[in-house]
# Entry
Amino acid sequence: MVRRQFLAMAVALWSLAAVQPAWADITVLVPSGSEGDGLRAAAADYSKLKGTKVEIVQAPYNNVFEQAANAGQSKSGAFDIVLMDDPWIPFFAENGHLEDLTPYFKKAGKDGPDNDFLSKSLALCRNPYDSGPYICLPYVGNAQMFFYDAAKFKEVGVEEPKTWDDVLKAAKALTDKGGGRYFGYVFRGGQGNPVVADFMPLFWSYGANLFDKDRTKVTIDTPEGAAAMKMFMALRDVSPKGVESYNANEVGQALAAGTAASSINWPNWVATFEDPTQSRMVGKISYTGIPAGTKPGSSEIGHWTMGIMTAAKNKQEAFDFMMWATSPEQIKISAERGNPPVRTSTFTDPELTKQDKFRHYPVLMKAIQASTPRPRHPKWPEIENAFGIELSKAVAGTESPEDALKNSQAAVEKITGMK
Amino acid sequence: MTRALPTSVSAHPAAGSNFEQWVERHLRILMLAPAMLVLLALTIFPSAYMFVAAVTRISPNPDAPWEFAGAQNFLKLLTDSQFHIGLWNTLVFTFAAVSIEFLLGLGLALLLDKYVRRLNLLKTLLMLPMMLPPVAVAITWKLIYEPQFGILNEIMFDLGLPPQAWAGDARLAMLSVIIADVWQWTPFMFLLMLAGLASLPIEPYEAAAIDGASAWRQFRDLTLPFLKPVIAIALLLRIMDALRLFDLVFILTGGGPADRTKTLSLYIYQVAYRFADQSYAAAISLFVLFATVAFSSWFIKRMRLAE
Amino acid sequence: MLRSRTARVSQEVAAYTGIAIALVITLFPVYWIASNSFKYDIDIFAVPPEWLPVNPTLKHYRAAFIERPFLQYALNSLIIAVSTTVISVVLGTLAGYALARFHYPGRWRHQISFWILSTRMMPPIVTIIPLYLAFNYLNMLNTKPAVVIAYTAFNLPFATWMMKSYFQDLPVELEEAAMVDGDTRWGAFLRMALPLARPGLAATAIFCLITSWNEFLLALILTLTERSQTLPIGIAGRVTQYHTYWGEISAAGFFSCIPIMIFAFIVQKHLVRGLSFGAVKG
# Structure
């Protein structure tokens, strides 16, 4: 008898533990990682300050997109705000998943975001790019920088890598000296997003682009594209074996461990390079903008932006939170928590720039101002996938670079319906 | 052969109350119904959705109407080279991984059955790989395969072999995926085989020993036939799982380099979530479902597992 | 005589060597996870690799279990895995027994069994979208019961098949004897067949437990916050856009196999016999 009662109680407790609903006032979808952690801390402050309960939903980086797309497509209203990687914006905007922010700005007595935000950051947040209405606000400012070991570069006669030819020259010399254990250059060669992300800056700095100006033609297989591809292949030849599977992490790791001398990477690595428990190269890694090809170098912009979902349950509260979280004070706090800012005032705040861990801010601000966004196209993920496959084949050597360009051209033409 | 209990013993003497009698009379359906109802409830909506989605064009825009697409999505299967690559990779992977797992698992089970019958701790340790989350396994193998810092290349170096780029080498990527999968799932095969061996009858072996049959002949004429049903089910379950390999390639290689490890599951995932084309994803899935059902039903008939 | 003895000895040596190699290959990656979980990030990437943590640290355990909600993830995983296992094993045992023991007209036994198995052949990725829609409609997104229900869908076919094969292997005479002694058929199942099937139950339970403890894809879409997110999702979350936190992943991954290992060790003696599927008799 006692045993039975005990069992019943256990079952009751178990079901209690298993079921526990209740939602917050605003729900925000973020990637797990430093951006999400930063916004989580901010949300906690906000709840204390305003009494509005903000719940943070963290999904692994790779899966934020489908969580948001699922919510948007099913109008589930599961999230009020989503923190988006900027290349996703066209997809969400064109498919009606995002709320037009214009009426909310009007209601608040404003025309739009203030002009302390960097112009490149704001341009991303309008759909169409730089001209349409605002559909999100920038929160984390990222653009690629060029990282290199200045001492090693100097050893082989390159003071500061200004062009890709400088990089290749230094990298080749260092790889030749390295005896298979040390390499002059390393890049993200993993199929899909990684290889595309590290090819785009080269592509742009040789004057190439995916589409022509008025967006009627695919322009991958052009002389400019071929020049970029030639340099890319030359750099591959001086990179370690196995870059075919590298992503941002492996590339950063190679620099932190001191087995490679240079790479393109995201500014989040600055803090890691300076942490002695994670890096052997403390104080030895320099950074600069993307080197030039035949045109000035341009990095790929990679912002995290906050938008309100059309199916959101509490849009006004969501807007208020977004305005608060992107205010100058909050962006500064976010910068101190390790996320690059999106405001001129924060980038030039002497309280920050005098600290060692923010010494890259001038370079980063310049990089953002000279950056190029990934092509604004609602089918970007599909384009990136197709382009990524061909680039991966070229890097792996299963296809000639010429064929890779030709096949990319054909694949992207097919996806976009351009000829 | 299975011997069934009588179905219609009406009013069994031991059944007292009316309720008990009613239960007794409908026991077959009462025991079967819960599972079938749960499965029906959980699969009917997803399958219906899949069928409908496959013949429509679902826009990622929730306000756009669904259009009827007829067989378009299925016709696309014929010309889509990425689908063909995915299909080929999946078949190669399934065949290679499952046969290696089976052979290793059987071999190990035979060894253990013969030489170390009682060591439970050893068996638990040999089961460890399949208890780890596949996500963690994939990440760990990534670290092991790492061309610069990875332990595998260090071992290769110590043995005087040339280091390799493993998952980063187009020629070795599929092999790397197979090795990681074999590592994780050989224990599954091994356990099933070991269990099968443990319940073999002793008498026929005694008889064979008296006849002076060699170990090989005992294995071929006694062990294999006795184990056949276990082998068949173990293979079937592993094949079904291998055909939908996802976690490992998603994390280890992302389908690369050069599309060499793109499996059908990975491709369906990309189509459904990256390209937001649910309809085409449903069409590929239907193809996979029908192919798996057809194969399994052939396999079950072949192995005479039905009754 | 002597020759056959040397042959036997060398055979034994070969056999033990084979087992030892298998054990080393099996355990090494597990050891590697454990060892990395105690190293600083910089030492995880030491060249040449450190076989033992030279400079051991609990940093990653602190990061995962104190600074991040991995304990909550583990609790969620436990609740979800145990619930799924109990439901699947109970329903699967009932259905398995019914399929093994009762008469069916024509080929219905085969038809029903095959249909049950075929529900497991659906590619999971596409079933996620309708499941998402359904749970959203029922207001059950981000709840543990939703995950339990979804997991039951793919564990139940497995449990049913295993238990069916197992009951088929039990001699039916025992149940007949019980019924002759005045037991009902339900009573014969409960008091005779079920205790005999204990090994099968243990085996089925451990497989269900392992699958639902480690499942990734469904949990990814159906869970949102630490109210319901499970360990594999927590682990995958440490692969971020810029960094992979190897140390924390190793710590959580290593921790994650401990509960199952303990359970497996406890039920070990049932396990091996239970796994036979009873299918031997066909």
